[in-house]
Design brief:
The chain has 297 residues and is of the alpha/beta class. Helix content is 42%, strand content 22%. The protein contains ten helices and 13 strands. Helix 5 links the parallel strand 3 and strand 4. Helix 1 packs across helix 2. It is elongated and about 75 Å long. The N and C termini lie far apart (54 Å).
Length: 297
């Protein structure tokens, strides 16, 4: 009979395409993992993987088998989650993906409240780009992900919990630094510094300013808001950051000024994404209530 252990090992090999790395991930010896995979293939009468000394490939038939195996593992994981939810909210381990333009600014505000209200909670945080997290939620590798909308998430359900506007960040020496509000047509757009492609905040910022993606062509960009803000402090240009990030990036800097972007908002919406059949919806609702309390303070 096929075991859950064999399914777990096979999915790990699919993920890493490397038996040694898959064994390390599963905390077993490579020989134990290989034996389990060989036995699984023998039971099914098919080869799931092609392997030699240099690489591991998934066979065409193996792709279909692994897709079904992933559904089985997901169903079993959610069966355990469902049983634990009857005891206490957030008592089961929970994996949450968060994008880099949210994680450093949201988590310090909300996690202390989560720990206080749910001391038994066991949250595992994974930080990555939106496209990676959406795929991980779909594949069952994450329970949920916190993203900024709008962002394509076909097949997933969004639970919105916060909305915010953007602020234009400039050096204190800028002639517009003392303004309280600024429209996009008043900014020097040729000096605007944004994140590299692949970060949804770049698209959201350009959309808020009614600009096409091709507008940001100065050649200066970064992979973090912290770096962009430091470039602004060095008078290399200006940038746009979400309101949530102001305390961490701007408030304590004597070189920077934040001016509200006076364009129709909200400029982005924060939401939890889950699979349609995810059984931990009650946990998401508990987190949303807790998050709203902390963010409103």
């Amino acid at each position: 009979m096929i075991s859950l252990k064999q399914i777990k090992y096979a999915l790990a090999v699919e993920k890493f395409l490397h038996f040694k790395n898959a064994a390390d991930h599963c905390a077993v010896s490579q020989s134990a993992l290989s034996t389990a995979i060989n036995e699984l293939e023998k039971q099914l009468g098919v080869s799931i993987f092609e392997r030699d000394n240099k690489k591991v490939l998934v066979t065409e038939l193996g792709k279909g088998i692994l897709q079904q195996a992933r559904k089985i593992k997901l169903d079993v994981d959610e069966l355990y989650l469902l049983s634990k939810m009857h005891k206490q909210p957030l008592s089961a381990p929970m994996s949450i993906g968060v994008i880099p333009t949210i994680a450093p600014y949201l988590l310090p505000k909300v996690l202390p409240g989560v720990r206080q209200q749910y001391p038994q909670s066991q949250l595992r945080i994974v930080e990555d780009k939106s496209n990676v997290l959406v795929d991980m939620v779909r594949r069952g590798e994450l329970d949920t992900a916190i993203l900024a909308l709008p962002y394509p998430h076909d097949g997933l359900i969004a639970f919105e919990f916060w909305q915010e506007d953007f602020y234009w960040i400039t050096n204190k020496e800028d002639k517009l630094a003392q303004r309280q509000e600024i429209r996009s047509d008043e900014m020097e757009l040729s000096h605007l510094l944004l994140l590299k492609d692949g970060h949804c905040l770049k698209e959201h910022a350009l959309a808020a300013c009614h600009l096409p993606v091709s507008s940001n062509n100065r050649g200066l960009s970064a992979t973090s808001l912290t770096t962009l803000v430091q470039m602004v402090a060095g008078q290399l240009g200006t940038t746009i950051v979400p309101e949530m990030a102001l305390d961490a990036l701007v408030t304590n800097s004597s070189e920077l000024k934040a001016v509200h972007l006076n364009e129709p908002g909200p400029h982005r919406t924060l939401a939890f994404l889950i699979r349609p059949n995810y059984v931990g919806t009650a946990n998401i609702e508990c987190l949303i209530e807790c998050f709203k309390q902390q963010l409103a303070d």
